Amino acid sequence: MTPEKDVELVGVTKAYGQTVAVDAIDLRIRGGQYCCLLGPSGCGKSSTLRMIAGHESVTGGDILIANRRINDDPPARRGTAMMFQSYALFPHLDTRDNVAFSLKMQGVAKAERRARAMEMLDLVSMTAYAARKPTELSGGQQQRVALARALMTRPSVLLLDEPLSALDPFLRGRMRAELRRIQRELGIIFVHVTHSQEEAMALADLAVVMNDGRIVQEGPPRELFNRPATAFVARFMGGHNIMEMDGRTVTLRSDAVRLSRDAEAGRRRATVRDVEYQGAQVHLNLATEAGEEMAAILPERTYFSDPFAPGDSVGVAWAPEDIHEVRAGA
Amino acid sequence: MTDTATSGARATPARARSGRRSLGATAEAFLLALPMWVVFAAFFLLPLAVTVTVSFWEFTQYSIEPAFIFRNYTDLFDGCVEDLPYLCTTLKTYLSTLKFCAAVWLATLVLGFTIAYFLAFHVRTLPVQVTFFLICTIPFWTSIVIRMIAWIPLLGRNGLVNAALQGAGITETPLEWLLYSDFAVILALTHLYTLFMVVPIFNSMMRIDRALIEAAADAGASGWQTLTNVVIPLARPGILIGSIFVVTIVMGDFLTIGIMGGQQIASVGKTIQTQIQYLQFPLAAANAVLLLVAVMLAISALLRMVDIRREL
Questions:
Q1: ipTM over 0.85
Q2: What is the pLDDT of residue B63?
Q3: Interface of A with B (CB under 8 A)
Q4: Fewer C-beta within 10 Å: chain B N or C terminus?
């Protein structure tokens, strides 16, 4: 099912004049993996994606797909296809002709390319909209068309540039599930650029956190969340307290924090700053005596069995095994 | 069906609101539009009405009388039907004008599209784009007469081009067709009006999302395929607007055709000018109305190809 078509980056660098956007990164994405490139804006994730796509020249290093160096190949010969952030649908073509565009470029006859476009539209449940122009489609529908068009070239790697950022939260959740389903069905590599750690955790087999043009940490999302390599990763993944402890930087998951009424009982004494109700859980902001900020996440039922109010003094406790040491720096 | 329903739903509250704001807002809107209306009426509608009126008047060699006769129009087409395999003067003139129109349109389109493409897709920074645009406007820095006269030392019998050609041994005798010829007319008109093609086409091209070009490359399109499948269809509104400019201007031109044609080439504008010189105002007016109809037909044909209101 899964063809062995690894994507490999070896010392890949992108420089714009003096500015280095991507600084000698190494990465291997195995065939059939869903990879998310994650990081704040300007971290080099989009440049990396565009270099794989062939829309940006590679300043240094090599990009290999299925062990073939593709640095200088035009996009269409790399076996990649890109789904653009703005979808980049051709405004003068209807849905079906947008999807059939690559076949038209190959010189496939009209009847055949339209028939194959309809098959692809079926995969994204858009056959009913085949005759519409892009402006007559909603954002979610445009995205499905863009996905169908990208898949039309039968790529071995699909590159997605912040595909969900333009959608409202409800649609985003649905499209996320859909992307995952289609990726599993096709068994090809998806490389998905996002700044949302939530998206990466929901989708990725391999999450890659980037900062300042470098890869800070890569691995399955669960590993990144539970064992962040640096304070940056912990902060970026969210849900962590980052503390100084005996000269070391450590992290502690907010949902591992235990609170008690007895201010002396815990390892730290703190005051409740504010309480945010989030449905299944309740989020508390705390200020410790030493002036540190901490966050605690309690299950809704636990919290409401004995609710705290802003201003309450509490004892903050945790199990020693929940403390995780991280590297200093970015 | 759905569209009508939603626009209807949207229109209702708007109507209710304008009803509440009542006369004040309507009067204000009319007042705001008034200056434009005055200018439009005084300098366009009124002269047009006068021209149409005069075209039905009677004239003799020494007088012009208000009347309502069609003689001016029938005179224009005198003998046009009877002599048919042979073209009458009016048809010949129109044919000649249309020929120039087509040639100049083609030349300005090819040149204008190429220049606009270069400016929009290859020049990356705004200051450089502005500089190139200023260079494109150089033909307009002097008066039309000087621009015409300036061709003479270049294209004349003893002009620069002939001197260079003979000096290089390419031709023995001076080329006669360089000046006062169809070629000279087309060259001068193209030189003048290419900018009218460049600007609207450039404008259309600047609105093409650059990601579309990448998407085309991603789908395996070659440069040429991207041009014919993406750039040209999306630049169509600009091409049409530029075409309208060029067609309208060339159809009415008499100065360029007169000077560059050595006063030997007939054009509709030239005919009208001659008739005015001989004080045959009603005949000139009838000719002008005919030209107006011809130009409007040409433009409506162009507009059929694209919905300008939707594209702008």
A1: no
A2: 81
A3: 53-55, 74-76, 80-82, 84-86, 88-92, 101-102, 104-106, 149-150, 152-153
A4: N
